[in-house]
Amino acid sequence: MSNPAMRVGSMFVLVCAVATLQAADVSRQQADAFQRKIDVISRQGPSVASARPTPRRTAVSESELNSWFTYRAQSLLPQGVANPQITIVGNGKVMGNVVVDVGALAKKRGSGGTLDPLSYLGGRVPVTVTGTLQTQDGRGRFDLESADVSGVPVPKPLLQEMLSYYSRTAEHPEGIRLDDTFELPANIKKIEVGQGQAVVVQ
């Protein structure tokens, strides 16, 4: 993804596809407003950061983000992943869910036995995750608190297997790891997660 706006969009999808819950006040107008903010954040990247005397802050509301997921994010989502939605709880904490087609993963894994949660599931299922997003000095990390599939609690290794499978690319065949830190794009220094909104600081 060479386009800066798409890199910013992908960063939000990465953060929120792992941690999402319940949309409110979704509209195409708010999706467009969020897209404009992505464009502004991209333009305020490394080329202008050194000349800026004070940090630039861009607020993003929960409703704008969920609207963008609904109307604009489909092309950025991995195949088999749909309908990400987020609740921004505050103090860094986010909750949410995303619908995942576990059929391909279950087939790849084969029979996991009667104790394997995926042995009871098939097709498209809701995956709910809760955790804390920590960002500082241009780096981010998501700390998992809990996860469930169709209301059934799942251990972290199973969630990691699902995330790795659905986030793999030609450049990153192993996919994303939950515990890894990641670089924030567009010279973003940190993301302040408040109640109902997040503030991007460049």
Shape: globular
Distance between the termini: 21 Å
Helix content class: 25-40%
Largest sheet at a glance? 6 strands, antiparallel
Radius of gyration of CA atoms, rounded to a whole number:
17 Å
Number of domains: 1
Strand content: 25-35%
The class by helix and strand makeup works out as alpha+beta
Q: How many β-strand runs? A: 9
Series of H and E elements: HHHEHEEHEEEHEEE
- Average of per-residue pLDDT values: 83
Low-confidence stretches: 16-23
Helix run count:
6
Question: What this model shows, in words?
Answer:
- The chain has helices at 4-17, 28-43, 46-49, 62-71, 103-109, 156-167, and strands at residues 57-61, 81-90, 93-101, 124-136, 139-149, 152-153, 182-183, 190-193, 197-201.
- It has 202 residues and is α+β, with helices and mostly antiparallel strands.
- The chain has one domain.
- A hairpin with a 2-residue loop joins strand 2 and strand 3 (93-101).
- Residues 16-23 have low confidence and may be disordered.
Key descriptive features of the protein:
6-stranded antiparallel beta sheet; globular; about 200 residues; 3-stranded antiparallel beta sheet; alpha+beta
Brief synopsis:
With 202 residues, the protein is an alpha+beta fold. The protein has helices at 4-17, 28-43, 46-49, 62-71, 103-109, 156-167; strands spanning 57-61, 81-90, 93-101, 124-136, 139-149, 152-153, 182-183, 190-193, 197-201.
